[in-house]
Amino acid sequence: MGEQQVAQIIVESIYNAGVKTVFGIPGAKVDAIFDTLSDHPEIRLVVCRHEQNAAFMAAAMGRITGRPGVCIATSGPGAGNL
């Protein structure tokens, strides 16, 4: 299974969970997911300046909407900043 196929499965799973907004910072390991998200007609992608900001915004969005709050970060330092 190719990287793009995996990204499509992830994005469709996010959409099927009722998520309308995704927060995060692109990085080498998640670029395919960000590409797929940016092309999705019903999910808004918010690119943040720091992973902690993305996590806080996703948490707030989840509390406000009652839907899952989604934050995506790359491996290594990106995940460490969450």
Main attributes of the structure:
Thiamine pyrophosphate enzyme N-terminal TPP-binding domain-containing protein; Rossmann fold; three-stranded parallel beta sheet; acetolactate synthase activity; 82 residues; alpha/beta
What are the segments in which pLDDT stays under 50 over at least 5 consecutive residues?
Answer: none
CATH architecture: 3-Layer(aba) Sandwich
| Strands, total number | 3
**Alpha plus pi helix count:** 4
Succession of helices and strands: HEHEHEH
- Kindly, what is the distance between the CA atoms of the first and last residues, rounded to a whole number of angstroms? 28 Å
* Category by helix and strand content: alpha/beta
The description of the largest β-sheet is: 3 strands, parallel
CATH superfamily membership, which one?
Thiamin diphosphate (ThDP)-binding fold, Pyr/PP domains
> The CATH topology, please?
Rossmann fold
Strand content: 5-15%
Percent in helix: 40-55%
How many structurally independent domains? 1
Mean of residue pLDDT values: 93
- What is the overall silhouette? globular
How do the strands of the widest beta sheet line up side by side? 2-1-3
Radius of gyration (Å): 12 Å
CATH class: Alpha Beta
Please give a structural write-up.
- With 82 residues, this protein is α/β, with parallel strands linked by helices.
- It has one domain (3-80): 3-Layer(aba) Sandwich (Rossmann fold), CATH 3.40.50.
- 51% of the residues lie in helices and 13% in strands.
- The chain has helices at 3-16, 31-39, 51-65, 77-80, and strands at residues 21-24, 44-47, 70-72.
- It has a 3-stranded parallel sheet.
- Strand 1 (21-24), helix 2 and strand 2 form a beta-alpha-beta unit.
- Helix 1 packs across helix 2.
- The protein is globular.
- This is Thiamine pyrophosphate enzyme N-terminal TPP-binding domain-containing protein.
- One of its GO terms (biological process) is L-valine biosynthetic process.
- Residues 5-81 form the Thiamine pyrophosphate enzyme N-terminal TPP-binding domain.
